[in-house]
Design goal:
Shape: elongated
Order of helices and strands: EEHEEEHEHEHEHHEHEHH
Strand order of the largest sheet: 3-4-6-5-7-8-9-10
CATH superfamily of the largest domain: Alpha/Beta hydrolase fold, catalytic domain
Number of helices: 9
Distance between the termini: 103 Å
CATH architecture of the largest domain: 3-Layer(aba) Sandwich
Number of domains: 2
Strand content: 15-25%
CATH class of the largest domain: Alpha Beta
């Protein structure tokens, strides 16, 4: 049957039932293709948009207020300001002097923390250092505490902050061979990465560091974002291209073999729910003869070995610095 006209209420309409079956399928296919294309575009935009939101959040730190200060422990100290190396971001910190000492330890905090520590736990570390004849420098990494910057890069750009701290101490007359680093979590990874950039970064306590950032994010991003793992590639792409956080190069595992013999003390809590203890073992295996000691503490959580076994922690860290900076 061919095409014919029919009239409904005076309006002329097309009777599609009169189309041949093949032409009917073609007509529906033509209508369906734009709908499918629009759905695909919408899905891709949602995929990219959600990934961008997570990347933005991933690189934007929480500025935690300082929970303590050296004054709480009756310590003399100076408020100090110095620039990061290269991009010259203003970094703020405390210099805590020890009388007649040429030794100094930089305390380097982790992500979303600051120079004092989440609950002020790093200031007692400074007090311990001073009591045993070490000057101490505690400072806020970029985007944290009172320092400048609005982003962090999970260790990539923060290396410049560590090197800025070294340059500042050199300007005060401290020799690099008399400097130690007491570093935590992302700060520990940052110090390890900086050791590959500058031979002046050595004598390192690395507490709760990750070994390879991409391995950690493969596990943590889906848990933190609630998004499936196939969102990871665009999240990391946006973090790298828009915010400077290149997970592919933030890998302490790849650089620790270059440290001097017995210059690295690796500490990790066996119950660490953020950075699994396997990261510490992998760092130690890669570092080889650079490892002074690998200390795994049963029951200790992320960056909380000092809370789990405070006296032992203090004794072992001081013994390391005493031997290497004597």
């Amino acid at each position: 049957m061919g095409l014919h006209n029919c009239y409904t209420g005076g309006m002329r309409t097309m009777d599609t039932t009169a189309l041949p079956e093949g032409r009917l399928r073609i007509a529906w296919r033509k209508r369906r293709l734009p709908i499918i294309a629009a759905a695909v575009v919408a899905a891709l935009l949602a995929y990219a948009g959600a990934s961008l939101v997570v990347a933005e959040s991933l690189t934007k730190p929480y500025r935690r207020p300082l929970a303590s200060s050296p004054a709480d422990f009756d310590l003399a100290y100076e408020d100090v300001i110095f620039p990061s190396t290269g991009d010259r971001i203003e970094l703020r910190g405390w210099f805590v002097p020890a009388a007649d000492s040429d030794r100094v330890v930089l305390i380097v905090h982790g992500r979303n923390s600051n120079r004092a520590g989440d609950d002020g736990q790093y200031v007692p570390h400074a007090a311990t250092l001073v009591a045993h004849g070490y000057n101490a420098l505690l400072f806020d990494l970029r985007g944290h505490g009172e320092s400048g910057g609005v982003r962090y890069t999970l260790g990539t750009a923060e290396q410049r902050d560590v090197l800025g701290g070294v340059a500042y101490l050199k300007s005060r007359g401290f020799a690099p061979e008399r400097m130690g680093f007491w570093s935590h979590s992302m700060g520990a990874a940052t110090v390890l990465l900086a050791s590959a950039v500058s031979p002046e970064v050595r004598t390192i306590v690395a507490d709760s560091s990750f070994a390879r950032l991409e391995d950690l994010l493969d596990r943590e991003l889906p848990r933190a974002s609630g998004l499936p793992g196939f969102f990871n590639p665009p999240i990391l792409f946006f973090a790298r291209t828009l915010f400077g956080a290149d997970a592919a190069i933030a890998n302490p595992l790849d650089v620790v073999a270059g440290l001097p013999p017995d210059s690295l003390f690796v500490i990790h809590g066996e119950a660490d729910g953020l950075i699994p203890v396997d990261h510490a073992r992998r760092i130690a295996a890669a570092a080889g003869p650079a490892v002074y000691d690998l200390w795994i503490v049963p029951g200790a959580r992320h960056d909380r070995v000092s809370a789990a076994v405070p006296k032992q922690y203090e004794t072992r860290v001081l013994a390391f610095f005493d031997e290497k900076l004597r």
